[in-house]
TrEMBL record:
An example Gene Ontology molecular-function term: hexosyltransferase activity
Residue ranges of the TM segments: 43-68, 80-106, 398-417, 449-473, 485-506, 564-587
Protein name stated in the entry: Glucans biosynthesis glucosyltransferase H
Organism of this sequence: Roseobacter litoralis (strain ATCC 49566 / DSM 6996 / JCM 21268 / NBRC 15278 / OCh 149)
InterPro entries: Glyco_trans_2-like, Glycosyltr_2/OpgH_subfam, Nucleotide-diphossugar_trans
Family per record: Belongs to the glycosyltransferase 2 family. OpgH subfamily.
Length: 630
């Protein structure tokens, strides 16, 4: 076998081709979905989302404008006012989403339009695209899902396809051996197939298109999984039922819960996801309704609708070259909706899991890829026929990254304002310049700090509300080991989130700048195994944050920078040790509260335990030299 594993391997059923053409973004598509047979009740929810956020932002900007205009508005003041408005409205939308979630819970709203109709049996394909992954983890998860499905009294027929784009020859050989083992041990009646492409054209998008155009016609629906996805048989069968019973739906997205967090940084994300993530998901489901979104995995899709409406073209760029659409999931959801299909979100469906990067560096590397894809969505906002909510999803994804440069600029401006008028660094510039801002007398460190503390409070609102709901219910706190254990873990999570936030702000700002200047990015496989990075790699990766931290610290020591910047300066100055600490195994080195225990760490679901067991068994077999697959 060649070093790059270019030779294809195929163990697939008889071909069943399904045509899939790239869509024209400049032309309105033909509506291919069945007509809606019931009215949507989304208007009031959307007014509840946008109106408070817009009104609050307008009132804030009006107040700040009146404050700035006391001494006249200069160019820098207009720029600062615009940045404040940009950051505040998106933070306000998060707060509005929490309000909608609470309103839905108080009104006992049902789970995002659960289907009520008859569910005809469907042929459902479980698709697991992989690329240079840990073979035992992928096939161990697959085996656990098949076992769990076999225990269901399934109304539908399921077939598993492992779709490999692996380039590494040794990994490809392990995949073929693991497939042989899985095929032998799979439950009766469960079809298991494997295919590795000779060339990984168009990455994951091309991998799925290859399956759809080769075998898609034989399957009514496809459950798209990631290499680290894990779903219970009950969750998969519920998705199939919902899609079958709702003829207007083309895609139903679950809300995956994080599992397998063994390091400090991964446990931080897992605790946040479980303790507060449900609240944001509940709010999103209430206002999005049939214009939901797609996250690229742990979702079920109607195969023919996807093939007819969601084919992606390449985007033209300067020099006659073309770009693949990287964050394809948001775009595919928008294309399905513009063809008349509903895209649903079911946050209350349990049994949908995924893993998370184990270290700060691995998280940032994944985030850099997502940044490029989400900023690409700005070019797609003018796509003909998109529903307004679909356009908002695209814009929201892009702005979530643009906010980091905005926050960074605000940080610089407020740093230059100094402690008071006498230490205002801006005053050292030439006041004869007509663009020089003549700050009002009230522009002091107190006023600046008050404004930013309000912003911080709003950023923490989802955490505070989610934690408050859990702390108020004894049954909920018992799942976290008791109220004291929960509140201790909550405090640790908030502290660490605040500590890592400035580092992530700088890293996202760098990613935005790289994307803006057209710097090419290496699309490597995601590192799903947490390994501590050596000091030289940490220094090379975090030199910018460390440099900014040194400058801020010098400003603090010299008395030129407000003292409220101490937490931010400390975080940036300590970027390297904080990054090193992110890889600490929580069970081995950290005491109880620092482990941030949650219901899924204290009582792992049965399918997670089974997957872990099968991973170990498969790893033992694959590591035996010259061990025959049979």
């Amino acid at each position: 076998m060649s070093e790059n594993a270019k030779s294809a391997f195929m163990a697939m059923p008889r071909r069943a081709p399904l045509e899939m053409l790239a869509q024209d973004f400049d032309q309105h598509p033909v509506n291919s979905a069945p007509k809606q047979d019931r009215p949507e009740t989304s208007l009031y929810w959307r007014l509840a989302l946008f109106v408070p956020a817009l009104v609050g932002t307008v009132l804030l900007m009006r107040g700040i404008y009146g404050w700035f205009s006391e001494t006249g508005m200069a160019g820098l003041e207009w720029f600062l006012l615009s940045l404040i408005g940009l950051t505040f409205i998106w933070v306000s939308l998060s707060v509005s989403t929490i309000g909608i979630a609470l309103a839905g819970l108080l009104a006992r709203a049902t789970d995002a339009q659960c289907a009520k109709g008859h569910a005809a049996p469907m042929d459902v394909a479980l698709l697991m695209p992989i690329y240079n992954e840990a073979t035992s983890d992928v096939f161990g998860n697959a085996a656990a899902m098949l076992d769990d499905l076999a225990r269901q009294k399934a109304h539908h027929r399921y077939t598993l396809f492992i779709l490999s784009d692996t380039r590494d020859a040794a990994t490809a050989a392990r995949e073929e051996r693991a497939y042989s083992l899985l095929q032998v041990s799979a439950p009766a009646g469960m079809g298991v197939f494997y295919r590795r492409r000779a060339e990984n054209t168009d990455k994951k998008v091309g991998n799925l298109v290859d399956w759809i155009t080769g075998w898609g016609a034989a399957h009514d629906a496809m459950v798209v999984l990631d290499a680290d996805s894990l779903m219970t048989g009950q969750a998969i069968d519920r998705l199939a039922y919902e899609l079958s019973a709702d003829p207007q739906a083309a895609l139903i997205q679950t809300c995956p819960v994080l599992i397998g967090a063994e390091t400090l940084f991964a446990r931080l994300q897992q605790f946040s996801n479980i303790a507060y993530g449900w609240l944001m998901s509940e709010g999103l489901a209430n206002w999005a309704r049939g214009e939901g979104n797609y996250w690229g995995h742990n979702a079920i899709i109607r195969t023919r609708a996807f093939a007819a409406c969601a084919g992606l073209p390449r985007l033209s760029r300067r020099g006659g070259r073309s770009d693949l659409i990287f964050s394809h999931d948001f775009v595919e959801a928008g294309l399905l909706r513009r063809a008349g299909w509903r895209v649903r979100f079911m946050p209350r469906l349990t049994g949908s899991f995924e893993e998370t990067p184990g270290t700060l560096i691995d998280y940032v590397l994944r985030d850099q890829r997502w940044c490029r894809g989400n900023l690409q969505h700005l070019r797609l906002l003018g796509t003909a026929g998109l529903h307004p909510v679909s356009r908002f999803h695209l814009l929201h994804g892009a702005v979530s990254y643009l906010l980091s440069p905005a926050w960074f600029v605000l940080l610089i401006v407020w740093s230059l304002l100094g402690k008071d008028r006498d230490t205002n660094v801006i005053s050292y510039f030439n006041e004869a310049n007509p663009l020089f801002p003549d700050w009002p007398p009230a522009m002091s460190h107190i006023d600046s700090a008050v404004f930013l503390m309000i912003m911080y409070a709003m950023l923490l609102m989802p955490k505070l509300v989610g934690a408050g709901i859990i702390a108020a219910h004894p049954k909920a706190t018992r799942l976290y080991g008791g109220r004291r254990a929960f509140l201790s873990a909550f405090g640790v999570e908030v502290f660490l989130s605040i500590a890592y936030a400035p580092i992530l702000m700088i890293q996202q700002t760098r990613a935005v700048v790289r994307t803006a200047i057209g710097r090419e990015m290496t699309w490597a496989a995601q590192n799903r195994t947490a390994v501590a990075y050596p000091l030289k790699d940490l220094l090379r990766f975090h030199w910018v944050e460390t440099g900014v931290g040194i400058v801020l610290t010098m400003g603090l020591v010299s008395g030129l920078v407000s003292l409220w910047l101490i937490p931010i300066a400390a975080s940036l100055l300590l970027a390297v040790p904080l990054s090193a600490a992110s890889a600490l195994p929580v069970a081995r080195y950290l005491p109880g509260p620092l482990r941030m225990q949650s219901p899924l760490t204290l009582r792992e679901p049965g399918i997670v335990q089974n997957a872990r067991r099968k991973r170990r068994q498969l790893l033992t077999i694959l590591d035996r030299p010259h061990q025959a697959a049979e």
